[in-house]
């Protein structure tokens, strides 16, 4: 057996899985997007751009997704980084495992139950009622973009914490000690050593959270109360309720295209930051 044949055989299982689970479904959705809605629902084969011409009708869903997904990702990063830094650098190793388990404990409970908990906390008998005791009346939190943002941060925070923690945990602590011995202030050590060397973890965490948020359905449906729609909510409506598979496919294809562009720009930015980090480390 030649080396080339052996390589193809090793790649065959993953390649088959990739073809069956990704390429073929996306191809079907792409074909459907050029079709038309059947009278009883579904799709009729055709070749028309009518569905793509109707995309502005779902502009609100795209706007909410492209606004709250980046804000949610950035907010999760701002909260997760200090937590990951504390766990990786400041905590005694004998307590680290226990604290890491506490970070993932929410994942042991269904996101549905956790969202119901936030419905109560943000509803009229939760935080608004507490604020009313202090004379702050008329605060409405549930069924708002703020409620959706809170649910996003809470639901996806562990996915941001762990990649950053891994990067910081692998950080050579001798670099921090050397920086301190050379007279660098803590903030300068952080900006020139800790932060640049943790960029791979930041990139991975942001990528995980952002991609999942782009297709999020449950959190906007429950905490947005039908008033804050994501593209995921629009897809459920088009495929399961309106049964307009052609239009739903066009929306789905557009979402994938937007994600590809966004992720490509993001990865190029990360690669440029990585190159700058290497230049700094050489200097």
UniProtKB/TrEMBL annotation:
Topology in membrane: Multi-pass membrane protein
Keywords for the protein's UniProt record, in alphabetical order: Cell membrane, Membrane, Transmembrane, Transmembrane helix, Transport
Chain ranges passing through the membrane: 7-34, 68-87, 99-121, 141-168, 189-213, 245-267
Example GO BP: transmembrane transport
Compartment(s) of residence: Cell membrane
Main location: membrane
Top-level taxon of the source organism: Bacteria
Entry keyword Transmembrane: yes
Xref: InterPro entries: MetI-like, MetI-like_sf
Short name of any one Pfam family annotated for the protein: BPD_transp_1
One cellular component term from this protein's GO annotations in UniProt: plasma membrane
Domain ABC transmembrane type-1: 62-268
Keyword Membrane: yes
Family: Belongs to the binding-protein-dependent transport system permease family. CysTW subfamily.
Protein name: ABC transporter permease
Source organism of this protein record: Parasedimentitalea psychrophila
